[in-house]
Design the sequence.
């Protein structure tokens, strides 16, 4: 079981305020889930999303990275998302990276950092949780469900059913929701320990059966490792135009499209497919100064 690192009350309030401001800037009221709309919101911020599956290696993996480039006219920001993780984790990872983008924090903005800034990471996690499920919405849901803010006397099975409905509606990872209930003071430590040890990914487990009873399609979606390969439509169009303008050779264009399992015929060009070259995409995740979420 992971040990909870708490932010101070002031830090937590600052994160809540920031998340609320960002939701308002997107035109989303606090009682409306963002869920998978988080991906469309990146376009509003001018952030380029690159999706690619990178498998775990030697017990570690990257959920997402943010990379920032200084260009002549304006900065260019990429979020690289590892689609080899579960879909609910993908949503959370993008929200986490949005914190680094908004606050200009993390390795993408300070190449001299040699170790993870644990406080910054904790703030980014809390921001993601607040952005996806605001405090006011969570409190309202709990009070309406239990007629109380104190869950210490509530049977564990009833809390589990509540968490299942919460996850299916708001699309956060199960363990993030459990941590949140402890952080907000709704649970005591013993309840937290019991809930946290549940394997929400076990398709034959009690939690999975409850989620499937509530919304089987949503549960299957959240527990799917999409392995999607793709990049923002705007960037794809730029690549196509660069080819049309002669800045890319036939082979370069073909290999670039192949990174995302596309081929020239998808865009009306008649060119043969050659071997794909992953070097550029791997550099986005493993090279330069990206920030791992």
Sequence:
């Amino acid at each position: 079981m992971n040990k909870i690192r708490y932010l101070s009350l002031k830090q937590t309030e600052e994160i809540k305020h920031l998340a609320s401001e960002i939701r308002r800037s997107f035109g989303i009221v606090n009682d409306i889930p963002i869920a998978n709309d988080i991906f469309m919101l990146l376009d509003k911020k001018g952030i380029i999303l690159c999706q690619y599956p990178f498998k775990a290696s030697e017990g570690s993996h990257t959920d997402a990275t943010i990379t920032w480039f200084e260009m002549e006219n304006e900065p260019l920001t990429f979020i690289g998302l590892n689609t080899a993780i579960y879909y609910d984790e993908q949503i959370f990872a993008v929200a986490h990276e949005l914190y680094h983008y908004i606050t200009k924090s993390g390795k993408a903005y300070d190449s001299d950092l040699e170790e993870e800034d644990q406080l910054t990471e904790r703030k980014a996690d809390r921001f993601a949780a607040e952005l996806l499920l605001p405090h006011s919405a969570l409190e309202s849901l709990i009070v309406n469900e239990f007629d109380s803010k104190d869950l210490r006397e509530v049977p564990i099975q009833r809390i589990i059913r509540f968490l299942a409905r919460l996850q299916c509606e708001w699309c956060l990872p199960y363990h993030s929701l459990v941590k949140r209930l402890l952080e907000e003071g709704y649970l005591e430590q013993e309840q937290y320990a019991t809930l946290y040890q549940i394997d929400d990914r076990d398709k034959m487990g009690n939690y999975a059966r409850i989620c499937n009873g509530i919304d089987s399609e949503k549960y299957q979606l959240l527990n799917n490792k999409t392995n999607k390969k793709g990049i923002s439509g705007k960037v794809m169009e730029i690549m196509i135009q660069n080819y049309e303008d002669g800045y890319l050779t036939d082979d370069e264009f073909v290999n670039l499209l192949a990174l995302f399992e596309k081929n020239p015929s998808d865009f009306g060009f008649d060119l043969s497919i050659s071997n794909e070259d992953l070097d550029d995409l791997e550099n986005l995740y493993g090279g330069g100064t990206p920030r791992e979420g």
